[in-house]
Amino acid sequence: MKLSRRLSLTLSLLLLFVLPASILPARVLAQNKTLVWRRYDVDITVMPSGDMRVVETQEIEFLSGTFTQGYAVIPSLRTDEITDFSVREGDRVYRKTDSDTGAPPYTFYVLYGNGGVDWFFPKTGPSIHTYELAYTVKGGIPQYPAGDELQWKAVTSEHDFDVLASKITIHLPPGGLPIQGRIVAFSPAGIAWETPDQTTVVFTATRALHLNEGIEIGVAFKHGAIAAPPPQWQTAYDREKAKQDILNLISGLTTALALLAVPLGLFLLWYLAGRDPAVGVVPEYIAEPPSDLPPGVIGTLIDEKADTPDVVATLVDLARKGALTVEENAKPGEFGSVKRDYELKKLPMPDGLAPYEQTLYNALFGKQESRTVDSLAGSLYADFERIRKQLYEEVVKRGLFRANPETTRSLYRNVGIAGIFVFGIAGFCVIPLFGVEAAAFPCTAGVLVLGSIALMVLANRMPAKTRKGAGEAAKWGAFRTYLANIDKYRDLKEATDQFEKYLPYAIAFGLDRRWVTMFSKVEATPLPRWYVPRYAPWPMRDPGVGAPKTMAAPSAGGAAGVPSLSQVGQGMAGSLQSFSDGLVTMLNSTARTLNIQPASTTSGSYVGAGSRGYSGGSFRSFGGGFRSGGGGGGGARGFR
pLDDT by residue (tens digit) across 504-536? Predict the structure, then answer.
């Protein structure tokens, strides 16, 4: 038993330490092998037959480790065939072998299936050697009337060590004069080129080539210098390229069209479907309500949204209509503070209430005779949503909107979301389906996605008022101007009767804080008949009845038996601002019970060669086209 455990432990240790070492990548195990290309030159001779004889001269300095083999992988893309390989080292010509298994030194093996060439030499440590790899490329130059084109990845980017220097020399056939303006080099390194004579072009790297850096050259020369038919692959390539060029043209045109059509279409959509009708001249301000629209409906009409201020304004309007009273109470808070709470006392429901007013009344009380505002917290959310829905129905019923504003906004938002989803997926799928030449199609999709986002934003402007609704909105806007600036248009001492009368409208307009504050500074302003502050004199309260009995008939002071703000303040040894603070706090507390936090308790708003040059980058010729990665050659080079 002990022997079995020891054997298991030994095997575990072997697996822990030996097995990981056995599966390390070859590159990690070979880190002790290093080298550098002191020079990597390529000489390309274009023959009248159209064949290219390529000679790569690689001067290698082995820095550390032992090497026995060099290799080259040359893809046959855009060629008819790569053949006639040869390898030499100085004066020593390597012999071709039929197998790479156990190949002797100074031989090479060609894998025609993948263009692989391996050459073998004796074990070599740190030293300098020059290898010459040569091969013939058949059908590597496409021919066009505007010029024949040689594009070749002369120095591959797939090399594990630096290339310190590189020169590529192109020898064109007799009569093959290079076409100025159509000589190009693609490389991260700077490349200088010159034409020492009429049929020779020389490219020289101006710095070392590091890992994943190579050189691809392109030279277009006069057509007719090659006395042979075009390469076999050219016909199919040109056909595919023509198809892709058409796709690219179409995609470019559709992108340009989308850039014009999307903004214009959105504007026309708003102009035809979302724009409010024009109204006539409206006075700067109107000193009294221009119609009998209730406050909640007015708030929904003005900003086209049924929101918290509209519901709170409706509650205060119900109090004005005699449906309830609000009594401020105080209870001990933390650290000796006093916390206000507000008791809503139920009175008989007035006749003629709109559906949303009835819903609010029933939601507040149900079968109870009184409720505190704190006790309502969190319980009115479902009713609040139903009240909002009924407010939207009310503005449509009264002929103020063509359709339910919330339904209209939702419709356009949903269309925008669908557009983002559809056009976004289309943009991702188009390149795999049509290729990189259709790269402008994703741009088209991107424009349409942006247009869909813009439609979602525009959705807020799409609810359209009727002519009646636009007229009412303009007139009530003028009335709002009056309420906001009443101290400029009236002597507040002569307008104290308007405080309670217009308070629901001020709430719907978001002016409640300003409205209460302005009138709290006027001593003659009477308290609202339905509001009982916590420091009110005893005659204003009746423990047995839900409504103050002494607030019946108006008088010169404001109301019979009803003290003014100033009188209440003096009687409480407090200040006139106490009522203002209490009322605004009540309104904000009510807003919180609707599960919508006020934006600010101080703002009153609840809504919250003869030539030489340098070349690099992309270039497009008249024929097959020069572009980075568009030529043959390349592959990988290295030593083992």
Answer: 999 999 998 889 888 888 888 888 888 887 655
Beta bridge partners of 71: 118, 638
Nearest partner of 504 among 272, 310, 637, judged by Cα? 310
Closest C-alpha to 120, from 156, 71, 81: 71
- What is the Cα–Cα distance from 219 to 183, expressed in whole angstroms? 5
538 token code pair:
């005893």
Q: What residue segments make up the domains of the chain, in order of their start? A: 31-234+620-639, 308-398+470-605
Lookup: tokens for 359: 């819903």
Residues in CB range of 492: below 8 A, 6 or more apart: 486, 518, 519, 521, 522, 525
Binning pLDDT at 50, 70 and 90, where does residue 552 land? very low
Q: How far is 564 from 572, CA to CA, in rounded Å?
A: 12
pLDDT in tens, 74-87: 888 888 899 999 99
Cα separation of 369 and 375, whole Å?
Answer: 13
Which CATH topology does 31-234+620-639 take?
Immunoglobulin-like (2.60.40)
pTM of the complete model: 0.59
Structure tokens at 529: 């008949």
Structure tokens at 497: 């009767």
Sequence letter at residue 171? H
- DSSP letter string, 366-396: TT-SEEEHHHHTTTSHHHHHHHHHHHHHHHH
- Residue 557: pLDDT above 60? no
Q: Give the position of tokens 């002597």.
A: 491
HEC profile of 521-536: CCCCCECCCCEECCCC
Which tokens go with 563?
Answer: 């003290």
**Distance in angstroms (rounded) separating the CA atoms of residues 212 and 214:** 7
Which ranges constitute the DSSP H helices of 190-289?
232-269
Cα 272 from Cα 188, distance rounded (Å): 54
Name the phi and psi angles at 154, rounded to 5: -70, -45
Range in 580-584, 617-621, 634-638 the model is least confident about: 617-621
Q: Residue 29 gets which letter from DSSP?
A: H
Question: How does DSSP classify residue 275?
Answer: P
Q: How far apart are the first and last CA of the chain?
A: 49
3-state secondary structure of 637: strand
> Which among 397, 398, 446, 442 has a CA at the least distance from the CA of 420?
446
User: Cα(585)–Cα(605) distance, rounded to whole angstroms?
Assistant: 12
**HEC readout, 486-518:** HHHHCCHHHCCCHHHHHHHHHHHHCCHHHHHHH
Q: Are the beta carbons of 376 and 366 closer than 8 angstroms? A: no
Instruction: Please count the other Cβ atoms lying within 10 Å of the Cβ belonging to residue 597.
Output: 13
Q: How far is CA 179 from the centre of its chain?
A: 45
Cβ–Cβ < 8 Å for 476, 303: no
Of the ranges 241-245, 365-369, 484-488, the best mean pLDDT one? 484-488
* Rounded Cα distance, 458 and 263, in Å: 11
